[in-house]
Fold each of these.
Amino acid sequence: GVVLIERVVRKSGRVSMIVFLVTAIMALSTVIVTCFGALDVWTQYTGGAYMGFKLPC
């Protein structure tokens, strides 16, 4: 990862590329987590699982 970032910074000459790369990685991870969460909810819904809150007692 570090080698790739160094190459990108050297080729572009802009250190701000690090910020753009981190932003892109965070956006991609947000999309992936959302998709897997939606798949989990769909699996529970189609399987008839209880999806609400359980009583504390």
Amino acid sequence: MDRSSRIKKVAAQDDEVEDVTPEDDDVVEEDKGNDNEADQAEKAMSEDDKEDS
């Protein structure tokens, strides 16, 4: 029981981190010159998330 509840707590923390991410994207979008770098960084982050799952 304790182990599963701990896993749920960690999963909830991951969701909180993901919820914060769009704010960072908004800041990046203001600097149009770095769109390609932003897209590459976003893809890299998505791949990292899949590996963590």
Amino acid sequence: AFGLLLKPTVHGFLGYATLTARDIREALQVTHRYFRMRNRQYRLTYVEDERGATLELHGVQASPVLQHHVMFEFVLTGLAQNIAQWAGRAAPAIALRFAWPEPAYFARYRDCLPPVAFDCAANALWIARDVLDWPLPFADDVAHRQALVQVEREYAQVRQEEGDLVERVRAELARAAGDYPGPDTLADALLVSTRTLRRRLEDAGSSYRQLLDEARFRDAKQLLAASDLDLKTIAERLQFTDPANFTRAFRRWAGQTPSAYRAAAAAV
């Protein structure tokens, strides 16, 4: 029901950029390119083929709220509504697809929605190829470019916020020099909750585990090349439970064993 009420203008300059686009295709491409400005908890993909275009929606966090069907329905139904509003005409050839069985409440909204399929492989909005070429009544190249300038400024701020946090976590792990802080300790140091830390790292396309592995790999290479510590001691310093786990991890990172890396470093 909420998705049916959405209008492009609720998205500020991003909404105006879609309204002033040349056609439905360009409006969809703008939506896809800047989607994370409005919905950082989701990932939207855009693919075209000979039949049309498909926008697939994926949750990027293992959150009960994000996995709730209503949230996916809200976002995709809102996108479907936008297409008719952009074009200024009804009944575009589009279809909604959801990855769960038809819910009981669907009957109340059936007549307000485009064709809907359930039990699909993914949650998606499909748009027929001829609809992609529909010109938009408010198309205005100058206004479109002006709106995109503002959108880019807002998007740059989003990217900076996400990138700054990743770099701050990297710095904390680098300072630890083997005594790596866990997520809770890191969150305290960065003055955020553990949940917020995890979410913002995921929004930036990263994770605590990924950054920890990056720090361990850096420190492992330094210890292997610049010390004569045995593998057991190095593994302990890097917080591995035993040398075998360290060896497996290092092989995954470097494509060779720690011993092979040490030998190659010594030969230089």
Amino acid sequence: MKFTGSVLLLFIAGITASPLATRGGKCPKNEVWSDCGSACPEYCGQPPDTMCIAMCQSGCFCKSGYIRSKANGGTCIRPSQCPK
């Protein structure tokens, strides 16, 4: 039981610390830091009129004119670069 609790605590600490580490550093190419970015960023192949919760998240987000190459992350690319 102690092991499970320790693993859970380390997991939560990692999630909490990760935005702080990124904030002080650099975001990847074509991304910028935001304290309140979309919880549902646009991505290649995204269905039209996708519902999204109205919560903001801090982290690195695609610059204006760029979208994610995949639904679950990926690099920021221009929409014209999305696979057809």
